[in-house]
Amino acid sequence: IELVITVAIVGLLAGIALPTMELVLQRNSEHELRLALRELRKGIDAYRQAYDDGRMTKNVEESGYPASLKVLVDGVVDAKSADKRKIYFLRRIPRDPMSADSDSPAEQTWGLRSYASDADDPREGRDVFDVYSKSDGVGLNRIPYKQW
């Protein structure tokens, strides 16, 4: 009888611990998502600032936003530098922590919104104005990850 009681207590504790652990894992993934979005958006904003400051050759047909996320890592030639040094905006492109696709490059795990698309209907285009998670999941705050 003591063995049955012990097994029942262990089963009860395991039943309580499992949902708590899932909650902790989701909270950690959401924290990583917030950090990755912040890092990418800061890189995009820094690129636009460099464009506005005249550190890149301007073209009337360009919006001033990077053509891809890869440009943020590869850098661009500083137009104000005498020896044509490059300006870098990110060290690496973070992977979307909510993406189930672990084989694709990190750049492809993100949804991209061009400057020409609406906020309510983000679409890719000639530039990268913003990024979002492609995940269909919903956060603990009840907001879909795509809207973060």
For the biggest sheet, the summary is:
2 strands, antiparallel
Q: Are there runs of 5+ residues with pLDDT below 50, and where?
A: none
Radius of gyration from CA coordinates: 22 Å
- The spatial strand order of the largest sheet comes to 1-2
* Secondary-structure-derived class: mainly alpha
The overall pLDDT average reads 91
What is the β-strand count?
4
Determine the fraction of residues in helical runs and give it as a percent range.
25-40%
Estimated share of beta-strand residues: 5-15%
Helical segment count? 2
Question: From N to C, what is the helix and strand string?
Answer: HHEEEE
Bulk shape: elongated
Query: N- to C-terminal separation?
Result: 53 Å
Features:
148 residues, mainly alpha, elongated
Produce the secondary structure layout.
Blueprint: H1 2-52, H2 70-74, E1 76-77, E2 86-87, E3 110-113, E4 130-133
Antiparallel strand pairs: 1-2, 3-4
Structure in words:
The chain is mainly alpha-helical. Helix content is 38%, strand content 8%. The strands form two sheets. The chain has a two-stranded antiparallel sheet. The chain is elongated and about 85 Å long.
Concise overview:
The chain is 38% helix and 8% strand. By secondary structure, the chain is mainly α.
